[in-house]
């Protein structure tokens, strides 16, 4: 899920690109999609069959606009684009995905993923909204964005969450575990952890590069 800069290299520590069944993008912003370009050129050079990429409507056109005219047709052929609006479901192998609307500056699908036994919710980018509690209800793991510290609340329009808001959303949803991601790079991780833990009511985890976790 999501393909921001650096993710393609990190992903290959775990699987080869030929093993990928699908990519799911929350929204088109570059910090969530930049590595779709090296992925596309890998597809092209390796002559692999198309890979399904699930996105909110309009993402293919946005990303395609940066592809050169000489490769544009291949960008549409080698990626099997599947546009999925909010309140939809789709399946990838044993995984069932549900999409939920969000409060962001671009259409963002908050994703609920289940294999029938365990459930992961990934917020994508969002401010506080009424769909989060439903998307993350009773999730085994809620991977939730928290861009800001509580003190940065109001720094911009409410299109991202503070650590305290992320903790409150996870508690309202009844999520078993909360892991923060999308932390603004200059923010202090201990502060983010403490503020999210306070509203969540339990210890939380941070998504860090090179670390792995199990749902
Ligand atoms: Zn965004
Ligand atoms: Zn983002």
Describe the structure.
This protein is an alpha/beta fold and 215 residues long. Helix content is 27%, strand content 20%. Helix 7 (163-173) packs parallel to helix 8 (189-200). The protein is globular and about 50 Å long. The protein binds zinc ion (2 copies). One zinc ion binds at residues 29, 31-32, 125, 182.
Residue-averaged pLDDT, rounded?
Answer: 96
Physical arrangement of strands within the biggest beta sheet? 4-5-6-7-8-9-10
Uncertain runs: none
Helix content: 25-40%
Bound molecules: zinc ion
Q: Outline, from the CA principal axes?
A: globular
From the alpha-carbon coordinates, what is the Rg to the nearest angstrom? 17 Å
- Biggest β-sheet description: 7 strands, mixed
Helix tally? 8
β-strand amount:
15-25%
- SSE ordering: HEHHEHHEEEEEHEHEHE
- Strand tally is 10
Find the structural class using helix and strand composition.
alpha/beta
Distance from N terminus to C terminus (CA atoms, Å) equals 15 Å
């Amino acid at each position: 899920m999501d393909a921001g800069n650096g993710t393609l290299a990190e992903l290959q520590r775990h699987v080869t690109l030929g093993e990928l069944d699908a990519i799911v993008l929350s929204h088109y912003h570059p910090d969530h999609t930049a590595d779709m370009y090296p992925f596309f050129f890998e597809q092209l050079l390796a002559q692999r069959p198309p890979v399904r990429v699930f996105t909110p409507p309009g993402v293919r056109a946005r990303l395609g606009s940066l592809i050169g005219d000489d490769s544009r047709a291949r960008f549409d052929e080698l990626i099997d684009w599947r546009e999925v609006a909010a309140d939809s479901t789709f399946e990838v192998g044993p995984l069932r995905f549900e999409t939920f609307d969000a409060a962001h500056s671009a259409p963002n699908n908050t994703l609920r993923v289940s294999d029938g036994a365990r459930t992961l919710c990934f917020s994508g980018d969002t401010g506080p909204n009424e769909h989060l509690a439903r998307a993350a209800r009773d999730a085994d793991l809620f991977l939730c964005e928290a861009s800001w510290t509580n003190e940065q609340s109001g720094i911009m329009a409410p299109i991202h969450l503070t650590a305290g808001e992320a903790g409150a959303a996870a508690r309202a949803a009844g999520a078993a575990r909360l892991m923060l991601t999308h932390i603004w790079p200059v923010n202090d991780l201990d502060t983010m952890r403490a503020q999210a833990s306070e509203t969540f009511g339990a210890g939380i985890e941070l998504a860090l590069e090179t670390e792995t976790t199990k749902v």
